């Protein structure tokens, strides 16, 4: 994907977005609401033509060469794409009949717990619809699959089953591109993470490199404390921030020097840090640091 731009009237959904998806890996596309994730996926799937820029899937244009790509690509939409009056198993068997070497329908039904779903699609719960949509996306044994919010609406047990299926796809050499608001989902599944905001690339890279392995020291204290003296005491590379008010975080290599710096800073201010905890920096920390911690309307 190179310099991709898409506008809806005066709204710029994507503004020069560029990134690559490694073959045979899981890539998670993350971003706040309205960042352009679904638009990006729709362009890659060939459902939407960009205003400018280009997308290539195995060197082919998703719009112009859709007939050549369709047998090799699976798509899970946020909504729609399934007959409203059909039941789960007949729908899967119908789709499987179009492919030369589909996945075993009975196995797929069992893995995603669809055997007991008797309602037609229009009467299914949100989680049941998601399970069926996921199954429909992979039943044709695709080489590339796009999953838009794959576990939204699923209960914890079903989500784990869905994750196991996605991991099996990777083990079989399938390239997976997924969007999600569940950061723990991305951290567990993704080999690579792409973070976008306002239609532009914020960062991308292997999940382990983005998280980095740094530590986090968290504590609470009176809000609005002066952090400048603490910053001067911390070792190079450490970062301190407050947010939400009264909640403080020191990110970096958390060791004796950091603990001593926080203690002496607090003593100088006459405050006592509370709820002190340490841990590793998570993908959620990275995401919030890059896209902001403030609520958006």
Structure commentary:
This protein is of the alpha/beta class and 297 residues long. It has two domains: 207 residues, P-loop containing nucleotide triphosphate hydrolases (Rossmann fold, 3-Layer(aba) Sandwich); 67 residues, Alpha-Beta Plaits. 33% of the residues lie in helices and 24% in strands. The strands form three sheets. Strands 5-6-7-3-8-9 form a six-stranded mixed beta sheet, sandwiched between helices. A hairpin with a 2-residue loop joins strand 8 and strand 9. The two termini are 29 Å apart. The model has no long low-confidence stretch (mean pLDDT 92).
Q: What is the element string, with H for helices and E for strands?
A: EEEHEHEHHHEHEHEEHEHEEHEH
Computed structural class: alpha/beta
Q: What would CATH call the homologous superfamily of the largest domain?
A: P-loop containing nucleotide triphosphate hydrolases
Q: How many strands in all? A: 13
* Strand coverage percent: 15-25%
Instruction: Determine Rg (CA atoms, Å).
Output: 23 Å
CATH topology call of the largest domain:
Rossmann fold
Q: What is the makeup of the main sheet?
A: 6 strands, mixed
Indicate the multimeric state.
Answer: single chain
Provide the domain count: 2
Q: Order of strands across the widest beta sheet?
A: 5-6-7-3-8-9
The parts where pLDDT drops under 50 for at least 5 residues are none
């Amino acid at each position: 994907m190179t310099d991709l731009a898409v506008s809806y009237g005066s709204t710029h959904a994507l503004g020069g977005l560029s990134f690559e998806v490694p073959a045979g890996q899981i890539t998670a596309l993350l971003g706040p609401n309205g960042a352009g994730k679904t638009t990006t996926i729709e362009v890659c799937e060939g459902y939407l033509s960009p205003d400018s820029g280009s997308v290539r899937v195995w060197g082919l244009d998703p719009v112009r060469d859709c007939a050549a790509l369709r047998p090799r690509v699976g798509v899970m939409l946020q909504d729609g794409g399934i007959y409203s009056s059909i039941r789960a198993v007949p729908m899967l068997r119908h789709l499987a009949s179009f492919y030369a070497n589909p996945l075993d329908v009975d196995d797929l039904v069992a893995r995603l717990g669809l055997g007991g779903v008797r309602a037609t699609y229009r009467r299914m719960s949100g989680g049941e619809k998601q399970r069926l949509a996921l199954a429909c996306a992979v039943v044709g044994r695709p080489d590339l699959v796009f999953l838009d919010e794959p576990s939204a609406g699923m209960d914890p047990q079903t989500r784990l089953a869905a994750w196991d299926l996605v991991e099996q796809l990777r083990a079989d050499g399938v390239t997976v591109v997924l969007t999600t608001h569940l950061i723990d989902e991305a951290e567990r599944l993704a080999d690579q993470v792409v973070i976008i905001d306002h239609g532009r690339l914020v960062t991308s890279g292997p999940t382990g490199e983005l998280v980095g392995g740094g530590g986090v020291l968290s504590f609470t204290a009176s809000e609005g404390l002066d952090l400048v003296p603490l910053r001067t005491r911390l070792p190079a590379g450490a970062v301190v921030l407050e947010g939400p008010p009264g909640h403080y975080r020191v990110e970096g290599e958390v060791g004796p020097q950091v603990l001593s710096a926080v203690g002496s800073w607090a003593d100088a201010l006459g405050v006592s840090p509370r709820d002190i905890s340490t841990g590793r920096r998570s993908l959620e920390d990275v995401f919030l640091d890059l896209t902001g911690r403030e609520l958006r309307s």
